[in-house]
Amino acid sequence: MTGLDIAGIAQRLGRAADEAAAIPQVAAEVGLDVDTAYAVQDALVRRRLDRGERLVGMKLGLTSRAKMAQVGVDEVIWGRLTDAMRVPDGGTVDVADFIHPRVEPEVAFLLDRLPEPGEPVGAFTDAVRAVAPAIELIDSRYANFTFSLPDVIADNTSAAAYAIGPWSAVPDGLDNLGVLLEIDGRVAQVGSTAAILGDPRRALDEGVRLAGRYGVRLREGWVFLAGAATAAVPLRRGAQVRAVVEKLGTASLKAA
Ligand code: OOG
Q: In this structure, how many other beta carbons lie within 10 angstroms of the beta carbon of residue 172?
């Protein structure tokens, strides 16, 4: 570990989120590498846990080419989800709580029994109890939504809020389902679950592997967001957002 002020960087990022006020990127300035960035993320999320939030899941980011191209970072990243980030399906978020929120359509898994660390996930249907369409609201804490790989990792992969549609049993194929993001009833993005690492089931193996490197184990009952299938779209006040995933249905939220 370096002599970097991990707690201090986490504090800056945490305040930026609390005050909905962007900060400049930190990685280049302080020489943050990927491992240290995950340590900052840990401290940033711990700050939330210290004020009573609960860790309820994990997300992957940049699992699709569209997302990688949009932000100019081409590595899969993972972040942590707390209960306070969850918005009820059909619920309302206040855009004033965020800096420059964007929404993206996702697939969520409800985790069942997970294998021991180091073991492959094995049968997907043993590891996943249910699947659902989801909307992730991302909000980079950095000015202009611009960051490097360590910056976005430190910022808990821009995680801000998420809504999950109805859970259903895992269908036979998950690897080529149509995905739509609609804003005010108009199609804003079109994609396929195939865009998520070729098959969103692969995202779970990736998540187990990546988090395992940092001693983090996925838990039964956790939500797992597999990463966006399309580029993200800015969320404007008054917008009505729907993510539609073929066979799985719809998740929605409103922006006040
Ligand atoms: C990074 C987080 C990306 C996804 O699903 O690809 C992400 C960002 O774009 O700000 O959550």
A: 6
